[in-house]
């Protein structure tokens, strides 16, 4: 077999493999489409990241599920309280997984790829720990 035929065979092999592989993306782009500033925090990260209205934040890894907590401001807007815990249970079939705050609240869009737990507004730290243990 000459060099041109080998090159064509190698290219055909890679095209066949690429077309049959199921590549899934687990990276999440969270979009704050609410009317207020909100904050997010990942459990393994100490950063408490605030997002203004209509801002985005990418989180997670390409090959592992992510989880994060969404914090919303209290009435005085200077103190945040936890509102939702989002744990990814499935990756997207496309390369971009976008999750909007409104989808979390309404159970629409890509929220079905997440286990979403809503925090009780007056839930104590002890109650949160007990809920996680169940």
What's a concise summary of this model?
This protein is an alpha+beta fold.
Question: What does it look like?
Answer:
With 134 residues, this protein is an alpha+beta fold. The protein has one domain (24-133). Helix content is 25%, strand content 30%. The protein is built from 3 helices and 8 strands; from the N terminus they run αβββββββαβα. It has a 5-stranded antiparallel beta sheet, with no helix packed on it. The protein has a 3-stranded mixed beta sheet with strand order 4-1-7. It is elongated, with a radius of gyration of 20 Å. The model has no long low-confidence stretch (mean pLDDT 82).
Number of helices: 3
| Cα-based radius of gyration, to the nearest Å | 20 Å
pLDDT averaged residue by residue: 82
In terms of per-residue confidence, which ranges show pLDDT below 50 for 5 or more consecutive residues?
Answer: none
Q: How would you classify the helix and strand content by structural class?
A: alpha+beta
> How many domains make up the coordinates?
1
Q: How much beta, percentage-wise? A: 25-35%
| Strand count | 8
Q: What is the helix content?
A: 10-25%
Overall shape: it is: elongated
Strand order of the largest sheet: 3-2-5-6-8
Order of helices and strands: HEEEEEEEHEH
Oligomer: single chain
> In angstroms, what separates the terminal alpha carbons?
64 Å
């Amino acid at each position: 077999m000459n060099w041109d035929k080998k090159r064509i065979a190698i290219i055909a092999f890679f095209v066949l493999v690429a077309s049959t592989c199921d590549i899934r993306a687990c990276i999440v782009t969270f979009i704050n489409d609410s009317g207020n500033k909100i904050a997010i925090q990942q459990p393994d990260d100490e950063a408490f990241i605030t997002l203004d209205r209509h801002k985005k934040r990418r989180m997670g890894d390409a090959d592992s599920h992510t989880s994060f907590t969404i914090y919303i401001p209290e009435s005085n807007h200077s103190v945040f309280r936890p509102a939702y815990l989002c744990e990814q249970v499935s990756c997207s079939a496309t390369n971009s997984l976008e999750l909007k705050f409104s989808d979390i609240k309404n159970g629409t869009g890509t929220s079905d790829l997440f286990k979403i737990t809503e925090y009780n507004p007056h839930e104590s730290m002890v109650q949160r720990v007990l809920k996680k243990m169940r």
